[in-house]
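Hey, sorry to bother you again with one of my protein questions. A protein chain has come my way and I'm curious about its shape. I'm sending you its amino acid sequence along with the backbone structure tokens. I owe you a coffee for this, so here goes:
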Amino acid sequence: MADGKRAGWAIALLAAALAFAACGKDDETPALAAGAEAASADAAAAAAASASAGARADASDTSQLIAATREYAASGCSAARRRLERCTACETPEQKPQRDLLLAYCAEREAPARARELYEAIISNYPSSEASATAIMRVRQIDAAELPALGDYAGPKPAATDRPQPAYPTLAESAGIEGKVRLRFDVRSDGSTGNVRVVESSPPLIFDAVALYAVSSWQYVAKTPAESQQVVLRFDLPDELAAPETAK
């Protein structure tokens, strides 16, 4: 993906994530503004402490960040964390947002309450970034876990009028990672979607935000409301771009 397209996708996702966060029509969760303002002081202190080391590192060398992302996707967090702890380039302003996002993914898989704090710090520390937009979506899903579970019954399938496909996350594309996300959602009487939730994803969390953004923007024929619709979104790369462990 070209840099211009990446920037455009990040801006579009951020705008959609903010709108999605503000929407409380069918799926009410706590507002994010207060959480962002209360972002972790520990994260801010760590950012200041690492600034000098990051300034000396080569921000263009993303090899360790990409390797950590592949390790996270293939085997979980232990190896990825160890690599990130040794990665000086990951301390640069260019790489820190994605580094922090990857660490927040690890935290969410282990302790969602702690992950919420990390996501709020990302929203506060890196506004207008792809990482911030993704963090907004992750907070929404953590909050949605407190809502009643979605029913298994899927109503009649309304006809779609517009179903934009998700963009490929920048880091996943660079690392050659493929995956899929299964989601449930309701179709409202005006044809928009609501109550959009991830049911499962592989690898965990990496593609969730873009999948949520895409499905939340879908449109269906008006006056045909339906509950508990399901869809599986697949993320595939050409064979020459896919990492060996994820190649088709």
User: Anything to note?
Assistant: The mean pLDDT is 82. Residues 182 and 232 are 4 Å apart (CA to CA).
